Request: fold
Amino acid sequence: MNASPQSELPSSSGVTSTEASSNARHGTHQQFSRAGRFLDDFGEASIRVFRAMTDTLAILAATVQLALRPSTWTAPVRSVMVRQLLFTGSDAMMVTLRITGAVGIMVIVQAALWVDALGLDRELIEPLLWRGIVRELSPLLACLVVVGRSGAAVATELASMTIGGEIEVLDSQGLDPMTYLIMPRILAFVVSVFGLALIAATSMLVTGFVVGHFMGVIRTPWSDFLGGAIRQFTTVDLLFFIPKTTIAGAFAGVICCRDGMSVRDSITDVPLVSSRSIIRAMTAVFAVSAVSSVLIYGRLLVFKVL
Amino acid sequence: MTSKPDAFDSLQIDTKTTSAEEPILKLRSVTLTGLDDPTFNMHGVDWELPSGHLAVIHMNVSQHPRDFASALQGIFPVRFGDIQFCGVTWTQSDVALHCQRRGEIGRVFEQNAWVNNLNIRENVLLRAQQLGFAEKQLDEEIERLRSQLEVPPLSRERPAFVDQPRLQRFQWLRAFIGKPKLLILERPLKALQSKALAVLLSAIESLVETGSSVLWFAGTQPEFEFSTRVPCSRWIAGIDGIHLAKESVPAATEPGRKMLEEQTQRKEPRDE
Reply:
């Protein structure tokens, strides 16, 4: 009660000066506190992203290191690898054919529409089809098929295993979870995405040709079309296709495995982890595709950047 | 009363002499707080398990040994101190060596003991295959152990479709394959009838004779009874969050002995 009597006088708004001062201090404090909270959240998010990136790179490095070591390939690890290839690669072939067949039709229809609308020569359709499909669409679609089909399954399986104590059971028997569970899955993702991207490219080219031929958009015979497509093929395409499929597949695999293994609480977290994992993996796939395009072709969309 | 010797009388484990060799397990100032069971805590425990030795740890029925057993295998982190298995400290960073060493430990889990997407046969053979056993040698060993432990034929069913008594027997088989240097048994008689005790003890005797050590987390009444009769070191896990306290080994009382013999000799229906 040291405040002077003046300070107790109400202002025109009916608030005493003590209250006003207190409110002002409180307001400033709130502002600082809000700013502090923002910085806190921002810092936390940055650390989380940084940690996720370093974890991802560390898992990738460990996968490569383990895969190159002959002693890694014991009978149980080989068995997991074969099963995973079967599930991720072989079982996904029909889905890939169906999806990419439909996309091939969409591409040729759109290409024909735009060539007609812009009054361009129809001979442009073949290189457009080839480049669009081989460079961009087939790796992306293969990744999406693998992530949507196997990524969710891997994340769910690993999360369930973690919560159910199965990882501990494996570990207790001398089976390193990284070697037995993660490495084969990531390698299976890499091999499957590469293989499915080849299948996707072939499927899209064939359906594109067939539909284009019936629509009268492509008038060349199949042998000429194929010859033309092969002539379009450059070393840069090869340089582009291999790293784009393998790197994107590896990132997708690492993200799904890491998310699956990171679950800690209860079985109800498994679906959350699974859906989050798919979104993250797809984001990574698109990011890798975009970065690869910029690095290899020096272009971001239509803008030359390198 | 027949004087027929049972499995317990034939156990010849010297608990008094300590081996000059490296102990199988060595705990130095270990402080541990269990996640699965917060009541099972250890504070600065020093403990050794020599080779060729059976130790029984009695736990309260509400206590679960999983975290402690995992810590002994270097899977679960201790807060302070370190645990050595055959001279290897789990805090070392050599993952390959750790995996190799863990492969030398057989373990019967109290719960969650199986990889659910593998069938029983694959689960049981997993450790042996990882260790690189030849197929023929493995088949012979499995047949020998199956007959010794009275385990039914290895099925190709998933663990979720197999009843608990059979699963428990399969766990025994898995743990005994490859003559492990250390056998950790977490309430191994769970879901089994008490006559299974004699079978298990006989197998333990054979294993201990080869120099392996056995650590038995006991929790049931028959387990408590047997440990008063066989030569082993007995320990009590405190529920107040401390220590492993050594218990003396009292001579078997006649009523207890009689009850145990009746339990083990009674004609009971097969539990499989």
In short: Chain A has a mean pLDDT of 84. The CA atoms of residues 66 and 72 of chain A lie 6 Å apart.
